[in-house]
Design goal:
Layout: H1 5-27, H2 31-45, H3 52-57, H4 68-71, H5 79-84, H6 107-111, H7 118-129, E1 139-141, E2 149-156, E3 167-174, E4 180-185, H8 196-210, H9 273-290, H10 294-301, E5 306-309, E6 312-315, H11 319-323, E7 332-335, H12 370-379, H13 384-390, H14 399-405, E8 409-410, H15 414-419, H16 425-432, H17 441-463, E9 469-471, E10 484-485, E11 490-494, E12 499-506, H18 516-521, E13 526-528, E14 534-536, H19 541-553, E15 557-563, E16 567-574, H20 577-601
Parallel strand pairs: 7-16, 8-10, 12-15
Antiparallel strand pairs: 1-2, 2-3, 3-4, 5-6, 9-11, 11-12, 13-14, 15-16
Helix pairs in contact: 1-2, 7-8, 9-10, 12-20
Protein name: SWIM-type domain-containing protein
GO molecular function: zinc ion binding
Keywords: Metal-binding, Signal, Zinc, Zinc-finger
């Protein structure tokens, strides 16, 4: 029975009261927000919910009248916790709510409790594995530990309307058993508390917990997924060639690795360019003798230069020249000679183990004040170094990443430190104090185009026979020198090298619309040899940055990429230990003589 206008007006009044209470008390951080939201939820948990019709008239509450005060602005997560940390997997940052020892103990405890069909469970697995449920959207919070409830929320894209707004999923989990106390989803089936989107969010929580994440990553790498080499969905669907589509069914117990399509040239022996052209003309003559065929005229007119394709040389303008092109059409690629033509080797991607367990920290130079010892003690790491990298992969969006960088000298400043001789107090402040530069146009351009540049880098490397795999990387701090840190744009596994390397991508705003020949004449980080081969200027600050990234991650090589709208330049730089040791001495001297005293005075 539909509620009356009088009832609806009361509902709206309660909604406004709930939102106002959460906005003033919870979101602003006042303690009263905690004391109001938690009892309201506790009382509502044992009270009947408003009717479905009433809930439809009050969508801001999400759970009806009873949950109004408890949920408010948080949409399924109490406003008190949502105001404290929207990027972490818990209140504040870190795991918090997921840190309960009995929470998410068994996958079956969560997945099989709700009355769900086998179809929903299969679909939820696909949603979780193929990133329809975004890892970066996961937030957890424990509003009141006395209630024994951990709240979680996530977003899940629709399976049919792939470009539509994703559904919001809200969960309430018992901390002692991991059981689902309550769950909702915006989809029609979510009103009953059990749908494939809710199950997908649960599966993702379990996977993040199993992999040791305390902060949600931007996405899961192939080594962290149940099935390797999947192409997780991103925000925005991009086209791809049919032969690159992964046809595996995303189901539990399915194939761990794909059966890739490999193009096969059935010709007995490789034809020379002139022989190939004569064969095309012969086919055109045969077609013309059979009747009037427009395609025969095209074949007879074929000539001129040939282009290299995945199927071998083909006449320029022919279908293979653009459908099976090795490089993106109309895109110029500059590749350094340090990257040779690969054999398109396909191998499983191994997990990367950072830092060697046997390494020990050398003695610290000099004596230190009490405040300096406090700073040094705060940045000391052991096993936590691997956890820090794992839980800071959202980089600038990660609170843990920002805090961990605060008292460290990071790779982006290595070049400036190595080159500069004298330091003033103002110079130290400009170098050390954190600054938000995301509103600066060149920086914003680089952030927005980083993923595009990575995609083009992968496409170009694949065309050169290097089936590289790129994964996100957080803040890397080697326990041997915990005052130094680095955050590469990615970690690359190249089967041709059988090892990992670092990836550093630059998208210069000043060259965003430049033509290739114009860019080669401009002065920037890349210099070009007589044969047009790109090389990172060894006197540029970026070289010290890449060298430091290789040293701290333990990688033996790094790919430096400069990408624009119409061209890309790639150089593979090999690690030079002697050069790093020389720079490392200068970095250590700067930290202990200038940076550490400055941090202690703050």
């Amino acid at each position: 029975m539909a509620p009356s206008l009088h009832v609806i007006s009361k509902i709206r009044a309660c909604v406004l009261l709930a939102l106002a209470t959460c906005a003033v008390a919870g979101y602003a951080g006042f303690p009263v927000g905690y004391s109001v939201a938690a009892p309201a939820y506790a009382a509502a948990y044992h009270a009947p919910l408003a009717s479905v019709s009433a809930v439809h008239h009050a969508p801001a509450v999400g759970y009806g009248l009873g949950y109004g005060l408890g949920y408010g602005l948080g949409y399924g997560v109490p406003a008190y916790g949502f105001g404290l940390g929207s990027y972490g997997l818990s209140y504040g940052h870190g795991l918090g709510g997921l840190g309960y020892s009995t929470f998410l103990r068994k996958k079956s405890d969560l997945i099989n409790q709700a009355p769900t069909s086998s179809k929903q469970q299969t679909k939820s697995y696909a949603f979780a594995v193929e990133a329809y449920t975004l890892p970066s959207s996961v937030v957890t919070n424990a509003c009141d530990t006395s209630l024994g409830i951990v709240y979680a929320r996530a977003t899940c894209y629709r399976s049919q309307k792939k470009s539509g707004r994703p559904y919001k999923v809200s969960l309430a989990l018992k901390s002692d058993s991991g059981a689902v106390a309550d769950s909702t989803c915006e989809c029609p089936a979510g009103a009953g508390g059990a749908c494939s989107h809710i199950l997908a969010a649960l599966r993702l929580l379990v996977l993040l917990k199993q992999k040791g994440f305390k902060e949600a990553p931007p996405e899961l790498s192939c080594t962290e997924l149940p099935q390797q080499w999947r192409s997780p969905r991103r925000q925005g669907i991009r086209p791809m060639a049919v032969q690159n589509v992964d046809w595996r069914s995303p189901r539990e117990g399915g194939m761990g690795m794909p059966m890739p399509v490999r193009l096969f040239d059935a010709r007995a022996e490789e034809q020379k360019e002139q022989q190939h052209l004569e064969a095309i003309h012969s086919l055109g003559e045969d077609l013309q003798s059979l009747g009037t065929f427009d395609f025969a005229a095209i074949l007879l007119a074929a000539g001129g230069p040939s282009v290299d394709t995945k199927l071998g040389p083909a006449p320029a303008g022919s279908a293979p020249s653009y459908q099976q092109a090795k490089l993106p059409a109309g895109f110029t690629t500059w590749m350094s000679p340090s990257i040779s033509q690969g054999a398109a080797t396909v191998t499983p991607v191994p997990a990367l183990t950072l830092f060697s367990d046997g390494a020990s920290q050398p003695p610290l130079p000099g004596t230190f004040t009490a405040e300096e010892w406090r700073v040094l003690t705060e940045i000391q790491l052991s096993q936590e170094a691997r956890d820090l990298e794992l839980n800071s992969r959202q980089q600038r969006l990660s609170e843990g990443w920002r805090q961990a960088r605060a008292n460290r000298l990071t790779a982006s400043t290595f070049g400036q430190v190595v080159r500069r001789q004298a330091w003033t107090e103002k110079g130290l402040r400009n170098l050390i104090e954190p600054k938000d530069l995301t509103h600066v146009r060149p920086v914003l351009y680089g952030i927005r185009n980083e993923n595009m540049a990575k995609d083009r880098y992968i496409a170009v490397m694949n065309s050169y026979g290097h089936n590289v795999s790129v994964q996100h990387c957080g803040l890397v701090v080697d326990p041997v020198c915990p005052w130094l840190g680095a955050t590469p744009d990615g970690l690359v596994y190249d089967p041709e090298e059988l090892s990992y390397g670092v990836l550093e991508v630059k998208c210069p705003h000043s060259l965003k619309d430049s033509e290739p020949e114009e860019a080669k004449k401009r002065k920037f980080s890349l210099v070009f040899g007589e044969n047009g081969e790109p090389q990172l200027d060894r006197d540029h600050e970026y070289y010290a940055q890449v060298l430091g990234q290789m040293a701290l991650t333990g990688c033996l090589w790094g790919d430096f990429v400069v990408c624009s709208e119409k061209w890309i330049g790639i150089e593979r730089i090999w690690f030079d230990r002697n050069e790093w040791e020389d720079k490392r001495k200068k970095l250590d001297a700067f930290f202990f003589e200038h940076m550490l005293p400055h941090l202690a005075r703050r």
